[in-house]
Amino acid sequence: EFMQASWDIEEVQAKGIQHLASFVKDKSAFPFLLKCTEVITLAMKTHIDSLDLQVEGCTLLLEILSQALEQGVMMALDESVASCLLHIVRKHLENEEFLSMLCTLLMMVSASEVAAENLRKVGIIPDLLSVLRRFLHNDKICFSCCAVLWSLAGSENNADQAVLASAVPVASAVLQKHLENGVVAESACSALWALSLQGCLTDSDYEPTAALLLDALRMNPERAVLVKNGCLALASLVRLSETAALAILLDSKGSGMELIKDEYHLHFDEPGVAEALCLLMNEMVQYDEVLLDMRSQKMEKLLSKIKLQFPFS
């Protein structure tokens, strides 16, 4: 109430945020702090030129959201809060350090389907892509923004197909740049999977994207989630085009089929990986030429192994 009575006085908002922050370590205060997110974001938007207030507000929101996620509470932030966050992103596009913090906040917010939908509605995707293009070297920003893209592209009511399509080259550029950084590569693979499911790739994208996803699998074989999401992304490409299937068979860095076998043996106790591999192979056998090649590489042996390993799945 104290903050709401004096929106225009920066010092009041700053003191209010600092005072709220003093309750963060008190577990009994958490349900009340949850109700303050709108007040905090509105204070940030109202005094958008004060970087100190932005940093303190963002830090407090990150603390509240972290506790919410730890306790399994989904914070479905409404459209007005999403709009405030977008406004703040646009105002601070040059500030890499603050943007890194802000993108982490957006990633945590987008874990809620409702909040992700509200971020999409206010039109945040082009701004995320601008941030990614500008700070392609920053692994934290790339990780967070690709995770947000994954959530937003997975939204069921995607009317903005053209906007999503413009995310494909950016997500590919992130993956190319951070192939050896497993955390970022995993996030970029997930974004590409969501974009391919939405039908955002064109004919000219299938071959290079398949090659890039295979590179990500080769460089990060130990990361089960990356392997799973990479294979699911490949499966959705193969479903759309034989070109993608042939790109897997004829990859210049070695047979994609051999890579699939290696990945299965590395993660033979991971049902999610086995399921993704089966889904990929199921898509590949729809093409006669590919089927012949898979037979010659004795892929039925691998399928039999998987069937024995997971008889009840």
Structure, described:
By secondary structure, this protein is mainly alpha-helical. The protein folds into two domains: 1-13 and 30-150, Leucine-rich Repeat Variant, CATH 1.25.10; 164-312. It is built from 19 helices and no strands. GO terms for molecular function: ATP binding; protein serine/threonine kinase activity. It is an enzyme of class 2 (transferase). This is Serine/threonine kinase-like domain-containing protein STKLD1.
Determine the fraction of residues in helical runs and give it as a percent range. Answer: over 70%
User: How would you characterize the largest beta sheet?
Assistant: none
Q: How many strands in all?
A: 0
| Relative strand content | under 5%
Order of helices and strands: HHHHHHHHHHHHHHHHHHH
Mean pLDDT across every amino acid position: 91
Spans with pLDDT under 50 lasting ≥5 residues? none
Shape: elongated
Count of individual helical segments: 19
Q: What count of structural domains?
A: 2
Query: Ends: how far apart?
Result: 55 Å
How would you classify the helix and strand content by structural class?
mainly alpha
CA-atom Rg in angstroms? 22 Å
Protein name: Serine/threonine kinase-like domain-containing protein STKLD1
InterPro entries: ARM-like, ARM-type_fold
EC number: 2.7.11.1
GO molecular function: ATP binding; protein serine/threonine kinase activity
